[in-house]
From TrEMBL:
SUPFAM superfamilies: Glutaminase/Asparaginase. It holds the Pfam family Asparaginase. This is L-asparaginase N-terminal domain-containing protein. The lineage of its organism: Eukaryota, Metazoa, Ecdysozoa, Arthropoda, Hexapoda. Residues 7-103 form the L-asparaginase N-terminal domain. It comes from the Eukaryota. GO terms for molecular function: asparaginase activity.
């Protein structure tokens, strides 16, 4: 089914895709929204393939459909910041944290 396996780390720090409208009608970051949206999008997670070949994946590990040209299968883990960041409220401190986390997690 696939010839090569790759692993990717996705660090979700916040952003529009993980936002929902709050009671005031304003979009704000909501925990696990990004993971939920990606997990139930067939182009971003092949649940059948995951179940068949990787039944012990963690909740935040997803499987991309096999690339038909390269026959590469990619498993990616989504690590979500707590609390999620809003880019309109970020400064140097937050960017330094992101850089340090990439260094540590990679």
């Amino acid at each position: 089914m696939f010839q090569k396996l790759k692993k990717v780390l996705v660090i979700y720090v916040g952003g529009t895709i993980g936002m929902q409208k709050n009671d005031d009608g304003v979009y704000s970051p909501v925990a696990n929204t990004f993971l939920h949206k990606v997990k139930y999008h067939s182009e971003m997670h092949d649940a059948d393939l995951a179940k068949q070949y990787f039944p012990h994946l963690k909740e935040n590990e997803l499987v991309l459909p096999v690339d038909s040209k390269t026959m590469i299968l990619t498993i990616y883990e989504i690590v979500e910041y707590v609390p999620l960041l809003d880019s309109s409220n970020m400064g140097c401190k937050e960017w330094i944290r992101i850089a340090k986390d990439i260094e540590v997690m990679n």
